[in-house]
Automatic annotation (TrEMBL):
It comes from the Bacteria. It comes from Acetobacterium bakii. This is MORN repeat protein. SUPFAM superfamilies: Histone H3 K4-specific methyltransferase SET7/9 N-terminal domain (SSF82185). Keywords: Membrane, Repeat, Transmembrane, Transmembrane helix. Pfam families: MORN, MORN_2. The chain crosses the membrane at residues 6-22. Gene3D superfamilies: Histone H3 K4-specific methyltransferase SET7/9 N-terminal domain (2.20.110.10).
Length: 217
């Protein structure tokens, strides 16, 4: 009788062992499946820092770029150079630019922010500067100017904002009332235009030169 009970206990224990092994194998396969689907994070070295991310189609690398230990940019990169949709950050971690990149430069549609995170410009960019159709905002978020923008000619190394209205644009008072509509040259009223007072009355129509009405003497 004791032998029969021993055999029954051994069989029962063996069945429990099989069940536990089956559950373990099932859990292991799920984990392996998840590991297979997940993209492994890779650290790629670049000048003065590294990029954490993973490879995607076309040989692009998607991730976050750190320079001197701080987050500098995120998006897609090719050979360490940013391309396509992405973001760039100030040293204080505030977003600086969000939009399209070409060969590491802001190019295409984008938005530029100040160091406090307030929107500064939205529109077209080329080679790292506002260029083409866009809208410029002041520090309070009010629309300041809209129209065509271009980079100032010459050496702009020490110019804080080298992209200025150029071509046909509209400029506004702080109240939002239209102030000037017409041609600009290097950020200054120059050419044909209209000037309005702060309540919207038209006060001058004609030629402008270096920011002033070119009135005939």
């Amino acid at each position: 009788m004791a032998g029969v009970l021993l055999i029954i206990m051994l069989i029962f224990g063996f069945l429990i062992w099989l069940i536990l092994i089956s559950q373990k194998n099932s859990n292991t396969s799920v984990d392996q499946s998840n590991a297979k689907d997940a993209k492994p994070i890779i650290k790629v070295r670049c000048t003065n820092g590294h990029i954490n991310g993973y490879y995607v189609e076309g040989g692009l690398f998607k991730g976050k770029k750190y320079l001197f230990g701080k987050l500098a940019a995120e998006g897609t990169f090719f050979n360490g150079v940013q391309t396509g949709q992405g973001k760039e950050y100030y040293d204080n971690a505030q977003i600086k630019y969000e939009g399209q990149f070409v060969n590491g430069y802001w190019s295409g549609k984008g938005r530029r922010f100040d160091e406090n995170g307030k929107l500064k410009y939205v529109g077209q960019f080329a080679n790292g500067y506002a260029s083409g159709q866009g809208r410029l905002f002041d520090a309070n978020g009010n629309l300041k100017c809209e129209g065509q923008f271009a980079r100032l000619p010459g050496n702009t190394e020490h110019v804080k904002d080298p992209s200025v209205p150029s071509g046909r644009c509209k400029e506004y008072y702080d109240t939002g009332q239209l102030k000037y509509e017409g041609e600009f040259k290097s950020g200054i009223w120059h050419g044909d235009g209209k000037l309005f007072d702060e309540i919207g009355n038209l006060i001058y129509v004609g030629k402008f030169s270096n920011g002033k009405p070119a009135r005939k003497s």
